[in-house]
Amino acid sequence: MAALLKGIPVLPVEDFNAALSFYKDKLGFSETFRDNNDAPGYVGLKRDDVELHLTGVGGGLARTVAEQTMARFLVGDVEKLYAEYEKQDNVIHPNGKLQQKPWGTREFGVLDPSGVCLTFYRDA
What's the predicted TM-score (pTM) here? Predict the structure, then answer.
């Protein structure tokens, strides 16, 4: 059977300026590419070994799609990342404080400007 080697979430974006500022300035991602310098519709970002892509969703559907989208990221030191993000305004979701979950992970949640739920976790 062929092995899966990597996954890259593609997250919906309502406002590219707000999304890029959030991911780069608050979450520490770096931009790796974009499809158009003037008005991007698709952008790649990376932090450490994690990549994600942002895509514009038209027709007024971005917020609806984003609010139904979730991505989970395994991190080496969830407490350290939580402390880093907690220093930023409006990053940690009010209901997403760092906590131990019944399914065995220690995790916290973030909502991006479009409404995508990002969970950062470590296994117990």
Answer: 0.92
